[in-house]
Amino acid sequence: MGVGGQQTEAAVVFSWEEVQKHCSRNDRWLVISRKVYNITQWAKRHPGGSHVIGHYAGEDATEAFTAFHPDQTFVQKFLKPLLIGELAATEPSQEGNKNAAIIQDFETLRTQVEKEGLFKAKPLFFCLHLSHILLLEALAWMMVWYWGTSWTLTLLCAVMLATSQAQAGWLQHDFGHLSVFKKSKWNHLVHKFVIGHLKGAAASWWNHLHYNHHAKPNVLSKDPDVNMSGIFVLGSVQPVEYGIKKIKHMPYNHQHQYFFLLGPPLLVPVVFNLQNLNVMISRRSWVDLAWYLSFYIRYFSCYVPLYGFFGSVALNLFSSVVYSLLMLLYHFLFQLQATSNIEKSFFNDWFSGHLNFQIEHHLFPRMPRHNYHLVAPRVRALCDKHGISYQMKTLWQGMTDVVSSLKTSGDLWLDAYLHK
Questions:
Q1: Which of 202, 242, 284, 320 could form a disulfide with 268 if both were Cys (CB 3.0 to 4.6 A apart)?
Q2: Total-model pTM
Q3: 85 and 224: one domain?
Q4: Are residues 127 and 93 located together in one domain of the fold?
């Protein structure tokens, strides 16, 4: 019974107290729809990575299982050999610290929106989105090829390239969440093209980081989006923990001031590229590496004849800095405003890849983003019913909150560093 991968009858019953004992790296049980599974040995073979599924060891994983897997019938064949029992009839379906009424209402809402077809993508929307990215790339190159490489046109070219990178980031996010095609394999294939050839990044790198983020958003030890490589501290827990441990990689009480100076030059040009190369080489993701290299082959083929090698490198670095500034604002905005949305407008939807509907995205990660605004009123009503915070802000309010939140976190770190 205790060996993962061994099939048994589901006649054995367990209490939550027993399930919660099996939450270590070498002993992992979890619960899905009241069924208890031993994933200890199988976790390493989990397609989404062992970390994602391991986050739910000793816990109920029903919500995450439903959110991440579009074809649950297919996935069941992998679960069946891992089944070791079920929760006792006297046990609640979730751990005692979860609100059963909220979960039930959310399940009802999820069932409703699925029946209404809100998980069905509109192919034309994504075709047009891809087309406008390719158009931006083409116009940027044609502009400097036809009119020359003056400083003004070069600056405009860099901004256009950064914009196309940002928009490609949102598009790869759609395919990465399996929200475009019905079949997962097509989503994975196009995801590799968009993130690899159009952005110069690895699908395996993004999958590892982003799935862990969605599994445990804002949980310090489990959400990689909270870990900013020691450059920034976020929220209210991490700065206090760093302060108590006397961790001082940076003067975090000034992070709201050096945010714009250090963040953009380091994020994409240095941190993201090193992370991508490390993941591709260490995991031998040669397909991802081929797509990654195709981005740079295409880029240098286009711009070396116009700028020379070093000029092309400089243009790429400059556009990466502009793109990094946008990404940092996006990242901190959405990371710090976990229960806030940015108001809907045509520009805000385009600018943020519809992640201005941050709450809806985290509740329905596989829902095509063009449908977030349709489910938003019902999500807000559910939150109001249960007294859950649901905030709507302007884009400017969200941006200013980024700076003020960084200052607040920095002050928390300083206080803990000096006095605890």
A1: 320
A2: 0.87
A3: no
A4: no
